[in-house]
Structure formats: C-alpha cells, structure tokens
Specification:
Pfam families: HHH_3. InterPro entries: Endo/Exo/Phosphatase_dom_1, RuvA_2-like. This is Helix-hairpin-helix domain-containing protein. This protein is mainly alpha-helical. It folds into 3 domains: 71 residues, no CATH class; 63 residues, Tex RuvX-like domain-like (DNA polymerase, domain 1), CATH 1.10.150.310; 60 residues. Helix content is 47%, strand content 3%. Strands 1-2 form a two-stranded parallel ribbon.
C-alpha cells in the first residue's frame, strides 16, 4: 500500500523543476503591485494651484469682447437703445450678455427707462445696480398729427391716420358713401373690421363735420337708392315706399313711426339723414 502511494505522489526531476518555476512566477505576480508602489510614488496634487487654475478659467469665460475689462469706476452715461457692442464692452458687460442685449434691440425691443434693463435675463443684479445710474434715455418727442375730417377726407388722408391702412381706408369711404356721411365718429365702429381696440387707436386722430352729410328726400327717393342706406333692411325699405304710396308724403319722423317693422332705434339712426320737401 505504501509503495503504491509513494509511486503515485513521486515526482520526476523534470516535474520538480517545473513546479519550482511555477511557484517563482506566482510569487513574482503577487509581489509586483508592492514593488510598483515602492519604486513609483504618486505626485501630490497641489489644491491651492488647482483652485487658482479653475478661477483663471472662469475669469476667461466671463471676459468681455476682445478680452478687455473695464474698471467699475470708469462708467459713463449711455443710451442702451443705441449702445454698440463695443460700448457694452467698455461698460464691463460680457460677450454673451452683449449678444443677448443686441438681439433684443435688433428685434424691436426698446428700453424706455433704466428699470427695463432687468428684461435682459442674463444681466445680473450686480450689473444692473452698477449700470442703472448711468442710463440716459432721451425723452420721446410726441409727433404732432393733423386731425382728419371723415366726411371730406380722401383715401390718402385717411391712410395718414395711424392705424388706418389702405384696406380700412377703402372700407370707410365705401361705408360713408352708402350712409351719406358720418354724423359722429362713433359710426366708424359700424365699418367692417373696426373693433373697439382699433377705434380707440384712431378716435383721437379723426373728427366729423355733420354739415357735410348727404340728405335723403324721403318723399322722392326711389326704392333702389333707399336700399343703399345701411340702417334699413330690404323689407323695411319696401315698407317705407309702400306706406308712402298708400298714405302720401311724410311730413316728420313721427309719420315713420306708423311703420310697424321700423323701431325707435332705427328711426334715431336715420333721422339726421332725412328731409321731407
């Protein structure tokens, strides 16, 4: 039994040498990391120098155009609406901030007072407090405009009114012709497309001389011509003509009250335009 066991575990010289080599290699692999740490030491990071480098990089990113930084005590009066990129640069504003400001003004944005600088979202509170005392925006001059008389104005005069373009001008003239002229400027609200907002925009620029309206002789006018009156419907015009045929000429507005389909509101509107000769 012993002899068999001995034979089983016995090694040849060649096998013994191979085992020794294997053990040496394993030892070298295990010892390598320790040897590396011994012969190669890591450099220690200088935290102070690292922080200085980060600060320098941040300052470079915030530097104004051309790398020029204006001292905060060299500010001067300026108009933000016309200030150039170089002007903003001299005021200590960064390139990124300047680009946003110029984009705002190029698209029609306007600064009307110093507080409007706060509309620029990337302008810091510090920058605003520093620049606000130096903002100098000239007062806007009111443009004197002539008041246009609606009953005599041609298309050119009407388009001179701020808020009235060629299309509105044509509509006003067309309605004026159908109506016979304006008795008051509030009648502009009856023009197609004229809402309250548009009326408020132009009301102060127009006036009405009711002496220029064209009168209607209610006793002689034909159906076709009376049909043009925008306040009367087809049936109402027909009723006016038929009543006249049956009862004779009208003498006053009160005679028209006898027509059942014409109410008091309509009569008030057409009364300034009627004559009874």
């Amino acid at each position: 039994m012993k002899a068999q066991f001995k034979t089983y575990i016995s090694l040849t010289k060649k096998e013994w040498n191979g085992m020794v080599v294997l053990l040496v290699l394993i030892a070298l692999v295990l010892a390598a990391p320790y040897a590396y740490q011994w012969f190669s030491k890591d450099n220690t990071i200088n935290v102070t120098e690292f922080n200085k480098a980060v600060a320098a990089l941040n300052n470079a990113n915030q530097r104004p155009l051309n790398g020029f930084k204006t001292p905060k005590n060299s500010l001067y009066k300026f108009d933000p609406n016309i200030a150039s990129a170089n002007d903003w640069q001299r005021l200590g504003i960064t390139a990124k901030q300047t680009a946003i400001i110029k984009n705002y003004t190029s698209k029609g944005g306007r600064f009307r007072k110093a507080e409007d600088l706060q509309k620029i979202y990337n302008l810091t509170r510090e920058d605003y407090n520093r620049l606000a005392p130096y903002v100098a925006i000239p007062a806007e001059k009111a443009v004197a405009t002539a008041v246009v008389e609606l009953n005599t104005a041609d298309s050119a005069k009407l388009t001179a009114v701020k808020g009235i373009g060629p299309a509105f001008s044509k509509r006003i003239i067309y309605y004026r012709e159908r109506l016979g002229g304006f008795v008051n400027k509030e009648q502009l609200k009856e023009v197609f497309g004229m809402d309250d907002l548009k009326y408020k925009e132009i009301a102060g620029q127009v006036k009405v001389d009711a002496g220029h309206i064209r009168k209607i002789n209610i006793n002689t006018i034909s159906f076709d011509k009376l049909r043009l009156m925008p306040y009367l419907s087809y049936k109402q015009v027909n009723a006016v003509i038929e009543y006249r045929k049956q009862h004779g000429d009208y003498n006053t507005i009160r005679d028209l009250e006898n027509i059942a389909i014409i109410d008091a509101g309509i009569l008030r509107k057409i009364e300034p335009y009627l004559i009874y000769k």
